[in-house]
Amino acid sequence: MQLNSRPDITQVRILFDDGTEEVLSQKPLGTGQPSQCTFFAERRDGSFTITLRLDWKDLNVNGDPMLDADIYRNGKAYRIDRKSWHHTAKTFANGEWIYHFQFENITITFKAQVTSERKQQGMASILPRSADAGDNTELVLGIDSASLEATAEAPMFCAGCQASTAHKLMVDHNKEILATCDCGRHLKFPLIETVKQLHALIAAHNTANDVGSS
User: Is the pLDDT of residue 108 over 90?
Assistant: First the structure.
């Protein structure tokens, strides 16, 4: 892949909520240069044809791409109520980050997983191994140990305790950050690289649950 905003990415894999998976493709533009989007296979539903793509030129604060949709009806571009379905941002729901596309009676819910080859220099912290986390349990962050410990001790809302509690951080077999409360309840965040990004994810989760900062 040749994504200018994320040159480290070598593959984008989609995990649909029905358990199926799809590896996205990068298509050439008319100029011969690669598109900065990764495309899903076309989907057909009656007279509609839906083309979805992740736009890597349109990233949010956490570095996640916008989901774009083009819809055709009987071969012609469909534009009715386009603002409601053309762009779909990544959202945090039920303890994980997902995309939820909806058009009329069609819903597509999935998580995006990237494979990257990244070369980094400087200090890093590796979180300890967990017995129930599978084989892939190391999280490498470009931050020092003190910052990591401070982040782990930062309050996060726990649905089980119905309160803000400290959580232990690790990476699970899906390559997502797993935050575990002492009560055993889990939260999931996408794999990130800096403490600033992690703070943003935690803040978004707390805001969604009306948790104020002390």
Answer: yes
